[in-house]
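In pairs, describe these two lines:
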Amino acid sequence: MQTARELFHKLAAFEPDGSYVFSIYLDMSPHMSGKQPWRRTSTPVLRDRLREIEKTLLPRHPALNGFRKDEERIQSYLENHVEPWLQGVAIFACDQQNLFETLELGATFQNQIAFEPYPDLFQLAHLLDEEETVVTAVVDTNTTRLFVTRMGFLEEVAGPNDSPDGYSKRNTTCLNQARYHRRVENKRKEFLREAASAIEELVDQEGAKRVILAGDAVAIPQLHQEISKRIEPMVHEEILNLDIRTPLRDVQAEIQPVITFMNREASHTQADNLVEGIRANGLAVSGIQETLHALELGQADVLILANDVPLDEQERSKLVRKAANTGAKVESVQGHAVLQAMGGVGALLRYRANWV
């Protein structure tokens, strides 16, 4: 099964050769109100947009036949293959080029239905930027629960556990108090060392970029001491106070605001780097044309887009496609006042060209 990143690069390299491509992003969450609370919020949006697009192709546009075949396949997929627990779905379709790709998420998209010469990849790029894999560890002195957040889905995986027998006070009848406390402390350290090792192994296995720690006030500071220097920079500073028996749904509710905060911090740091680069060493550009030129030359290392500044969707899509095809990362930023004032578009550069 291909990953979202693999799909992103496949679509960026796609050449429709004169055909039109559907780019569909749907919020699949239910209304939760009204006469049909279970009805998807995207259902009427998709229906109305399909009719609107079809009218532009009547009576005999060359793309009309392909449009209708794609529409039929899209509707069939949504009716027969989409699970009720999904929160977001992306569909890319072009019958004439035998393209039909889908992506299913535990996170929502903004409803968008486009029928254009190239796939619109902005929301997919935003997803890759915002939904990096996160490892969460909920730990007490003898139990570790490990979780992985991928594309909006939270999954629990096995973590190390320790028998509570060695911590029982009945041992004090045969050991003096000092020896008992020393034994407990050594046992606790050994367990937390195992927990730190399990966290590191899971980070490597999943390719995670961030780690969230949660648990009791005794275990977490000691766990911090056991985490390797390589993993430590990934660990979020705030420690969540979660009981080891917290249900999965409640764990997700607690960590989601933290993940959102971490994403915002990281994106604002990149926007700050853009501003400083323009002010200082010139390894940055702003504006649509300047940024597009840098991408075409292969200079751009990071394309930075404000997702709260109105941009022409086709120009934005072209920027994202160029970034994907030249190895530039795409960073979407929300609520950065200076970036907004700069027009919402810029790039950090690998190098500055010396020719005119």
Summary: The chain has a mean pLDDT of 89. The first helix runs from residue 4 to 12. The chain is about 40% helix and 20% strand.
